[in-house]
Amino acid sequence: xxxxxxxRITKLExxxxxxxxxxxxxxxxxxxxxxxxMVRTEVIEMFKLRDREIADLKxxxxxxxxxxxxxxSIWISGLSLAVLFLFNILNYMK
Length: 94
What we know:
Elements: H1 3-36, H2 40-93
């Protein structure tokens, strides 16, 4: 073999080595990125839990709305009682 062929083979070997190192780095990055992602079953379970929490919050909100309506009637009756006492005091002072 000639000297040029040896040089060419050496250059190719160096390029192959650098490509192998690059491939190893890419594989490590892919493995690291893959380990950060969640499995499909985990995602499904997470969404189920989130949906349950949303449903519970909606039920609590509906209960609070019903309680607000009940509280409004109590406030109105209390206000009417206060007005009644005020008019009784005014009538008594006459």
